[in-house]
């Protein structure tokens, strides 16, 4: 969603890097570019005006740090002000001293409210809670069935009106919400998520119904679900709902879309309520607390290592990953290891999504559209190999290559390319495993030698990436088999 904005900021800061010192004229030029970039990203003009004013005040009115060059100084200031604009801190969910903690979900029809309710239930379950979903959207009968289907996938029960009443569309959602509170206490459920009805537009009937549900449910949190793809309309919707409901926060859906992202940068400043959660994909697991600092870092091309680490922890087996990394650095990495790592990476999302979280990835790589079908093609070639061939690629001669190509629906030249690039990966990673000043067996040679130190914790990775490794400005290395 923020690719265009990231590219604009990248161009702005690249021009600054050639300056020896920062003059007021330089600041004016940078601020004009930043203002234009934000307006093109559909950020509310008042938010842009205030943000640019704060950046100007800090750039011109204070002494800048002598250890930083002009580009670093401006990036640091812009980064801090973007974090403040996005809300400053991640919302900390607190729970009612006397359960259940009640969450009321509101929003317009089509914003993804029902799906988001199920995603939120999954998130609470991951925190060790026992949520109950309440189907109080009786305007469209399919909403109840949709919630039941999604709830089954995350293993959370649903409280709803009887099916015969749901089918008529004449049920009382206020009564359903009231009965759900008693049922939650009976079942010992400590979180209740109430999915209310939406409309195609804000109207008096919608607001009255949500207000009455709020009265009987007494929610601890009222979240408005808005579609980030609607741009400034999302901010307007949030303002109107807040006048009626006293929102505690906003949940943005479709934050992975191709819209310009202005809603995310405008909501907090315009509505005065933070973005609580963000949905970044269609899968139920593509949902988490909204972290202003992480999004600000991604907008400025700094990556999002912490989110990447959290996702890796969730999807990767730590012991297996360490063993694979050790084999990789020793040059013993096999196609079986590669296939296993691909399977785990697929759980984290698309390659483009992963690349977007990595800091320092050049624009040329970040903007490459990697078709996930290419990954499937690689997987097909590897699965067409025998177990022995995966462990010992040198066994693959001409006839075997033809068999692999036929079995995977590819050509022998594509198989040749995969084998060649895989060997390059092995050779390159084996070289990285033996640091400067060491011989083939890793023994120290002469003064100052030693193995390259690799980070052993997520914190070390987050501080400075991988010591000793640097992506080239025009990288020629690519994943095996990818164009």
How are the secondary structure elements laid out?
Blueprint: H1 3-16, H2 24-40, H3 45-60, H4 70-85, E1 101-107, H5 113-126, E2 131-136, H6 141-154, E3 158-159, H7 163-168, H8 173-187, E4 191-196, H9 204-217, E5 221-227, H10 232-245, E6 249-253, H11 262-271, E7 275-279, E8 287-289, H12 292-299, H13 305-315, H14 318-329, H15 335-348, H16 351-357, H17 363-366, H18 372-383, H19 387-391, H20 398-408, H21 412-433, H22 458-464
Parallel strand pairs: 1-4, 1-5, 2-3, 2-4, 5-6, 6-7
Antiparallel strand pairs: 7-8
Brief overview:
The chain is α/β, with parallel strands linked by helices. Helix content is 54%, strand content 8%.
| Order of helix and strand elements from N to C terminus | HHHHEHEHEHHEHEHEHEEHHHHHHHHHHH
Query: Given the helix and strand composition, which structural class is it?
Result: alpha/beta
Overall residue-averaged pLDDT value = 76
Main sheet: strands, sense, barrel: 8 strands, mixed
Total strands: 8
Parts with pLDDT < 50 across at least 5 consecutive residues: 434-483
Oligomer: single chain
Mass-distribution shape: flat
| Helix content class | 40-55%
The CATH homologous superfamily of the largest domain is called P-loop containing nucleotide triphosphate hydrolases
Tally of distinct domains = 3
Query: What is the name of the CATH architecture of the largest domain?
Result: 3-Layer(aba) Sandwich
Give the CATH class of the largest domain: Alpha Beta
Strand content: 5-15%
Q: Helix tally?
A: 22
Major β-sheet strand ordering: 3-2-4-1-5-6-7-8
């Amino acid at each position: 969603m923020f690719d265009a904005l990231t590219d604009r900021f990248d161009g702005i800061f690249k021009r600054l890097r050639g300056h020896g010192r920062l003059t007021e004229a330089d600041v004016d030029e940078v601020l004009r570019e930043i203002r234009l970039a934000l307006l093109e990203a559909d950020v509310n003009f008042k938010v842009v005006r205030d943000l640019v004013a704060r950046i100007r005040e800090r750039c011109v009115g204070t002494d800048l740090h002598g250890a930083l060059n002009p580009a670093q100084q401006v990036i640091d200031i812009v980064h801090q002000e973007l974090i403040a604009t996005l809300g400053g801190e991640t919302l900390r969910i607190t729970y009612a001293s006397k359960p259940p903690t009640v969450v009321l979900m509101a929003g317009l029809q089509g914003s993804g409210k029902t799906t988001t309710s199920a995603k939120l239930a999954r998130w609470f379950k991951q925190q060790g809670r026992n949520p109950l979903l309440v189907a109080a959207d009786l305007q469209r009968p399919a909403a109840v069935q949709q919630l039941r289907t999604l709830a089954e996938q995350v293993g959370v029960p649903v409280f709803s009106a009887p099916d015969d009443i749901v089918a008529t569309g004449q049920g009382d959602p206020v009564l359903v919400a009231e009965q759900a509170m008693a049922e939650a206490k009976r079942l010992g459920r400590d979180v209740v998520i109430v999915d209310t009805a939406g409309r195609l537009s804000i109207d008096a009937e919608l607001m009255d119904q949500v207000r009455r549900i709020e009265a009987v449910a007494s929610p601890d949190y009222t979240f408005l679900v808005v579609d980030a793809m609607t741009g400034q309309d999302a901010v307007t919707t949030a303002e109107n709902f807040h006048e009626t409901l006293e929102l505690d926060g906003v949940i943005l859906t479709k934050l992975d879309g191709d819209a310009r992202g202005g809603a995310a940068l405008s909501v907090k400043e315009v509505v005065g309520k933070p973005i609580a959660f963000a949905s970044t994909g269609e899968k139920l697991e593509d949902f988490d607390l909204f972290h202003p600092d992480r999004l600000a870092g991604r907008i400025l091309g700094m990556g999002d290592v912490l989110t990447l680490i959290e996702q890796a922890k969730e999807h990767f087996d730590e012991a297996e990953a360490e063993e694979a990394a050790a084999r990789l650095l020793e040059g013993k990495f096999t196609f079986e290891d590669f296939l296993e790592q691909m399977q785990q990476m697929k759980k984290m999302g698309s390659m483009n999504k992963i690349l977007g979280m990595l800091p320092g990835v050049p624009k040329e790589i970040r903007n490459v559209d990697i078709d996930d079908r290419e990954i499937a093609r690689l997987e097909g070639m590897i699965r067409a190999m025998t177990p022995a061939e995966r462990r010992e690629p040198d066994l693959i001669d001409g006839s075997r290559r033809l068999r692999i190509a036929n079995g995977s629906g590819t050509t022998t030249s594509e198989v040749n390319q995969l084998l060649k690039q895989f060997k390059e990966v092995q050779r390159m990673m084996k070289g990285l495993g033996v640091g400067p000043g060491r011989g083939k067996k890793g023994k120290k040679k002469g003064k100052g030698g030693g193995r390259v130190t690799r980070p052993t914790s997520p914190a070390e990775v987050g501080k400075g990436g991988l010591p000793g490794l640097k992506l080239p400005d025009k990288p020629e290395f690519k994943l095996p088999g990818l164009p």
